[in-house]
């Protein structure tokens, strides 16, 4: 599921007014310049056309958007210390994650995915912490390389011309 831009309170108020005039979701969507399914979903999630209220819908949206759950590495000092110890040893987040599972097989509170470690490192790194991050990580990068954006061309650039000719040759 892709990212969707949130409806504003003004858009929700227009939805509420138009619903009181018995206008359809498609009509409201055209007026707002939104897809009709966005409007239908908003109406459905907030009680339907007869009971939709903009202020209540906005409050519900804000409550759902809030992150009440504390991040795992912040919540557990022991886990935080174990990850820091692994980083001090120049282990990768993947190695740290695997080591924690091996050292604490029955303690779920000491398990963390490598993605959680990366997220904590890269999203929270500011100023001097970013410099320390570069020193702690083996590659020295202070930004993540998005692996999903690597292309076939980038993969092919690692091969010599002779290898590329062999790869492109038709099978006979």
UniProtKB/TrEMBL annotation:
UniProt name for this protein: Transposase
GO BP terms: transposition
Natural source organism: Frankia canadensis
Any one GO MF annotation of this record: transposase activity
InterPro entries, sorted: IS30-like_HTH, Transposase-Integrase
Gene Ontology CC entries for this record: cytosol
Location of the Transposase IS30-like HTH domain: 5-46
């Amino acid at each position: 599921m892709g990212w969707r831009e949130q409806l504003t309170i003004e858009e929700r108020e227009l939805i509420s007014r138009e619903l009181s005039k018995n206008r359809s979701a498609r009509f409201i969507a055209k007026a707002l310049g939104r897809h009709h399914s966005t409007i239908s979903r908003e109406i459905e999630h907030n009680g339907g056309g007869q009971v939709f209220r903009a202020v209540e819908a906005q409050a519900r949206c804000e409550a759902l958007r809030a992150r009440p759950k504390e991040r795992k590495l912040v919540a557990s000092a022991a886990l935080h210390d174990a990850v820091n110890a692994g980083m001090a040893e120049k282990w990768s987040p993947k190695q740290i994650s695997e080591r924690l599972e091996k050292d604490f097989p029955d303690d779920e509170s000491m398990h963390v995915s490598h993605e959680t470690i990366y997220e904590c490192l890269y999203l929270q790194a500011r100023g001097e912490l970013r410099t320390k991050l570069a020193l702690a990580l083996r590659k020295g990068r202070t930004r993540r390389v998005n692996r999903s954006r690597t292309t076939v061309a980038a993969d092919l650039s690692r091969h010599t011309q002779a290898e590329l000719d062999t790869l492109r040759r038709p099978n006979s």
